[in-house]
Amino acid sequence: MSVKIAKIAMAGLPGKMSASIAELALESNDIELAPFALTGPGVALEQDIGNKKITLISIENKETFFKEIENAKVDIIIDFSHPNAVSGNVTEYTQRKLPFILGTTGGDYKKVETQVIESETPAIIAPNMALPIVALTAMFEMCSAEFPGVFSKYDLSVGETHQKGKADTSGTAKALIALLQKSGAKFSENDLSLCRDPEIQKKKWGIPEEHLTGHAFHTYDLFNSDKSAHFSFSHNVLGRKIYSEGTLDAVRFLAPRIDDKVTRSYNMIDVLRNL
To answer: How far apart are CA 203 and CA 206, in angstroms?
Structure first.
């Protein structure tokens, strides 16, 4: 019988990413899912996750949610709520020193990190929970540091497609664009193509019908001035499993560090280094 290392509560249900993580947590042997979750205003009162019924508590009743967190002895909050909710949620977590993992993109990550450090709240902040993609980003980061001019003669164009409901530009795309620019590549906002149209996703990108509501395809193209050299990088994901698996790996990393005397803001590189 496996020992439970952490009890988690979700913030962001009934969102698909939160639901995916919750479902995987129910299947795990070492992580327990609390029977309640934080949600936005005007949402249904409960949701079925697998064979478990989750009570959804509106942010308008946040004191009830945090009382439940205390009563149920929840170790870590997993937050994949709407980008507009990030600032308020993180303020609540850090004021109460509640350990959390933030995977929502679109928030002010520098502000969040400052709040975490100043409040000494154990947390993992990451715009991408997919460990292989995190490793790819680290490779580009090393390249930009070691070879800052390698793409100085190249123009960068980027295409990315996500499900229609994704409210913001991919945080991973932003990060890789910045790193390629540090390696010398020339890029402007006009060189970024975002797709949220299901018909175009099927015809141009080849997204299967069953994954139109959950996918992440990214392509980065670098051309020199006369088009005699072309470098292309891509990472394509169907569904949400890879992100959910990474999130639970993040729980396994953070749980034993909650009571450390020195707490700090962690990221998925830290998780990778401790697999």
So the answer is: 6
Q: 124-176 pLDDT, tens per residue? A: 999 889 999 999 999 999 999 999 999 999 999 999 999 987 767 787 898 89
User: 119: left (phi > 0), else alpha (psi -120 to 50), else beta?
Assistant: alpha
Residue 161's contacts (CB-CB under 8 Å, 6 or more residues apart) are: 194, 195, 196, 200, 201, 205, 207, 215, 216, 217
Q: Quick: pLDDT tens for 29-52.
A: 999 999 999 999 888 789 999 999
Maximum separation of any 2 CA atoms in the chain, in Å: 65
- Active-site residue list: 162, 166
Give the pTM: 0.89
Domains recognised in the chain with CATH numbers: 6-125+241-273 (3.40.50.720), 131-238 (3.30.360.10)
